[in-house]
Amino acid sequence: MPPIAFTPHEEQDNASDLTAQGIEHALQKTAPSQLKSASLSDSITQLPSTNPKHDVPTPLAELDASLLQTTYTTSPRPVPAIGSPEMTSQRVCSDHMIQAKWNSTTGWAAPTLQPYGPLSLMPTASCLHYATECFEGMKLYRGYDGKLRLFRPALNCARMLVSTSRIALPGFPPAELLKLIVKLCATDGAKWLPKDRPGSFLYIRPSMIATDPALGVQRPTEALLFVMLTCFPPMDGQPGGAKLLASKDDMVRAWPGGFGYAKVGANYGPSLVAHGEAHALGYHQILWLFGEECYVTEAGASNFFVVWRTREGRVQLVTACLTERIVLDGVTRRSVLELARERLVEGYDGLEGVEVVERKFTMAEVAEAADEGRLIEGFAAGTAWFVAPVGHIHFRGKDFKVPMGEDGQSGRYTATVKEWLRGIMWGTNGQEGHEWGYVVDEI
């Protein structure tokens, strides 16, 4: 992920961008090492220096993985059987977790690797009242070559800094977070992803919450970073493809100037009512639209792609752009686009070459392509859903099918990109040494 430079502007109204000003000020204090070399997500664009008229605060202690203190469990937990209710419950975590505490007086304390267990919070903790919490979603894969891998983990760690900065939580060097994640994966990976279960994975959930026990709408003065590994079922194999219900006028997931680009809890809680109603009607996810024009944004918590043929005859792979910061800069999204530009532009294995397009597009355009026989396929992409073919969309009282290919399970473009990603994640198809696969050395 390209670094972001904080470019100074000599003359600027300090009140013109309070969010950018606040983020820069917080980083000056909590993670000054990131101001000139921050690997922040492209979705935050170039935050300008606001040239505040206050003194630069004294930097606090930064997050430092080399200070990790380790306490191993004396009560190891059993690993659930594949396909068991425990494995699919999304409630079973591995033996250990990472924790690191922060406060506004001293900064980051030494992180710990410790037995997995409950957290202790006061009822007045900021995260319970003001949505001062964010998280990431990653996976640890057991490859068919026997190795443990992460997939482009530096991107997730950089994006988490974007999220913490957006909701007034402390900054940190993403590289230090990555070291802590790798340590946890190396500690629990061998037991919880044994070598006789190739093709399996654990879900990684790095989170940060504000823990200061004082009510009041203000910047948090205490925070807790924690990382856990959770058993998680595959979610990409819906028979006949995923069924999506396009959102209605009374539903808005994110908006310009908001925080749709950050992975914060406030993006998800308000969507659960609509999501539950969609499930009750037989749909798998909401296809989130925005504005009177019904611009397509995301499918549930995943990025959404269509492959269609233009009226001029060109095949395009299209997904929503990031310019308005409504859509999450998904790691899977980014990877799909990069692979498509590298391998699909000229065609592949009999597939016609595609033009890769990131732009605003409307649900009306998708419906017209379907009505005119130009819609080729569609899919959702994200860490949890991986690459999930879409087979059906309901929009404004009308149902239409999304082509699924000859096998009725996936279009060929979807299947091709998915196979490339699978090869990198699980070390197959000649992708064992791909730079996106981060090999974890087991303890």
TrEMBL record:
Source taxon at top rank: Eukaryota
PROSITE patterns cross-referenced by the UniProt entry: AA_TRANSFER_CLASS_4
Pfam family, one: Aminotran_4
Record field: compositional bias (Polar residues): 31-51
Annotated Gene3D superfamilies: 3.30.470.10, D-amino Acid Aminotransferase, subunit A, domain 2
GO molecular function, one term: branched-chain-amino-acid transaminase activity
Coiled coil: none
Record's keyword terms, sorted: Amino-acid biosynthesis, Aminotransferase, Branched-chain amino acid biosynthesis, Pyridoxal phosphate, Transferase
Cofactor(s) needed by this chain: pyridoxal 5'-phosphate
Catalysed reactions listed for this entry: L-leucine + 2-oxoglutarate = 4-methyl-2-oxopentanoate + L-glutamate; L-valine + 2-oxoglutarate = 3-methyl-2-oxobutanoate + L-glutamate; L-isoleucine + 2-oxoglutarate = (S)-3-methyl-2-oxopentanoate + L-glutamate
Modified residues (N6-(pyridoxal phosphate)lysine): 263
Enzyme class: transferase
E.C. number: 2.6.1.42
PANTHER family: BRANCHED-CHAIN-AMINO-ACID AMINOTRANSFERASE, SUBGROUP IIII AMINOTRANSFERASE
Similarity remark: Belongs to the class-IV pyridoxal-phosphate-dependent aminotransferase family.
Name of this chain's protein: Branched-chain-amino-acid aminotransferase
The organism of origin for this protein: Karstenula rhodostoma CBS 690.94
